[in-house]
Amino acid sequence: MSSLSRDDVAKLAGLARIEMTEAELVELSSQFGLILDAVARVQEMDLSGVKATSHPQPLENIARPDVVLPSLSPHDALSGAPAQEESRFRVPQILGEAE
Amino acid sequence: MIRNTAAQMADALAKGETTSVELTQAHLDRIAAVDGHVKAFLHVDSQGALAQAKDVDARRAKGEKLSPIAGIPLALKDVLAQKGVPTTAGSKILQGWLPPYDSTVVGKLKDAGVVIMGKTNMDEFAMGSSTENSGYGPTFNPWDLTRTPGGSSGGSAAAVSAFEAPLAIGSDTGGSIRQPAALTGIVGVRPTYGAVSRFGLIAYSSSLDQAGPFGRTVLDTALLHEVMAGHDPKDATSINAPVPAVVAAAKSGDVKGMKIGVIKQLQGEGYQKGVQTRFDESLQVLASLGAEIVEVDCPSFEYALAAYYLIAPSECSSNLARFDAMRYGLRTGDVDGASAEAVMSATRDAGFGREVKRRIILGTYALSSGYYDAYYGSAQKIRTLIIQDYAKAFTKADVLVSPTAPTTAYKIGEKVDDPMAMYLGDVATIPVNLAGICGMSLPAGLADEDNLPVGFQIMAPAMQDQRLYQAGAALEAALLSKWGAPILSKAPELKGAK
Asked: Where is this region: Disordered (chain A) (predicted)?
């Protein structure tokens, strides 16, 4: 049976930028064994020589002529901002003190 | 008036027997009377709806040429952005967000004069099969208020089933239109991937997501399908081809000589007895109408669920990275000196629910180096095999069929602590999404053991959506004459309803 420890889940939560309580970490790690066993079934079939499909359609880049079209005004673009200043998004500190 | 079909309502509007304002008000009254029990809506935009209705009535009075469903009220899944109207995708992280733009689907509805009455409840970011994962509490099945309406588009399905709206829009990533349609006794269609624009559809799993119509009849569903579909330059995956003639197909409803393939892997063991019985009966009905029934083998479908629960979480872990507390939505923990990373992590903890966190973590794991090939890579190869199974099956049959869901509606809370049991409910609908083809669920009757609706699923190749409607309309008409009345006439009256 597959498993993920509490510390494994904590590491993944860190990568995904989700703070988690101890209870959440323990609950998730206890559920993950079953879920991983179920999804690991994709490895049961012989998949040698099978191509991977990432998308149901053949995707291609689509370009359009470089002309100006209507778009959101700064006011509209900022309308949902949690904080703003001088027509810009105000964000928390990105670089640490030492940098 | 509210119990009529959308086609009948459209007819009454065209003949001047009623107005859109009258029709819209009747539905708003119904919502006020019963939605306290059903909880299909997250937001009802009465003023906006009546203004739209008034506008359509004025245009009709002037003799303008209008779309076939102009003036008909509709319920919109809260996953689609509507300018100036609260749009949350069922998540606390988007509480209070007012989109500064319309999704293409909403733009098309407005152009067609469809009256958008409000936003419906859903599993958070469409992740779930019961609407219990909504950040705003569950929706209740109008057939039995102790049960779920399915999900993730449970609010939209319940609204149509409870006569709060004749039409609704949902989105279907792994069955989220077809399964709730099955569990509430209505019709739901997931169009071919790329047939309906995803611009302004809040993304869960971009290679699987597709918006589609709900109605109480196959024809009503087709009328909405034709209005919402079509090429959109704003969506790079939008198919640049004419919309299949789904309304004409729904009106013809002929299956004589049609080859109908029963998928061996999607029936029998694991399917509730009453579900299997109604499914088998519907097959006999189709055979009696002149269809040829064949059995088809799709061996890789056994692995579809596993592939889906790797691909969808992987894509979601990437898509939901945009909820970073910087540009819109919730921000918490923004105290003096807190780093952007700390604010982001605190916000995502506070704003995301359990299932969303579970899927983001699973996706992060499946995509992490060292595990990528074994999980995400293998899942993508299974996806290829599923596409090949379908291609082979469609050489033997024009449409493929199965029960939509293995069981009827289950109790609220029954599976909420057992994610794998919940995921199993999508076993018959997921292959369609992985292959990017189209599928419909329509009512096949009530299961004997619990008197709850059973869904019959029809699948067709990409951009052959009209075949769903042709076969669906034939089955619907034959079942209606057998039952003597539409299935929803057997649903109990809702408390508080006039």
From this structure: 71-99
Closest-CA distance of chain B to residue A1, Å: 15
**The two three-digit tokens of residue B60, written as one number:** 């009709």
C-alpha neighbours within 13 Å on the C-beta side of residue B10: 20
Q: How far is A94 from chain B (nearest CA, A)?
A: 5
Number of domains in chain A: 1
What is the per-residue pLDDT for A99? 45
- Domains of chain B and any CATH numbers: 6-301+383-490 (3.90.1300.10)
List pLDDT tens digits, range B457-496: 999 999 999 999 999 999 999 999 999 999 999 999 997 6
B101 touches chain A (CB under 8 A): yes
Backbone angles phi, psi at B399, to 5 degrees: -135, 155
> B353 CB near a chain A CB, below 8 Å?
no
Q: Which of B20, B39, B67, B77 is catalytic?
A: B77
8 Å CB contact between A19 and B338: no
**Inside any domain, residue A52:** no
Instruction: Report if pTM > 0.95.
Output: yes
Q: What ipTM score was computed for the predicted complex, to two decimals?
A: 0.94
**Is B193 part of the contact surface with chain A (CB cutoff 8 Å)?**
yes
Distances, alpha carbon B201 to alpha carbons B48, B118, B128, B235, in Å? 21, 16, 17, 10
Residue A37 counted as domain residue = yes
Which domain, by its residues, includes A15?
A: 6-42
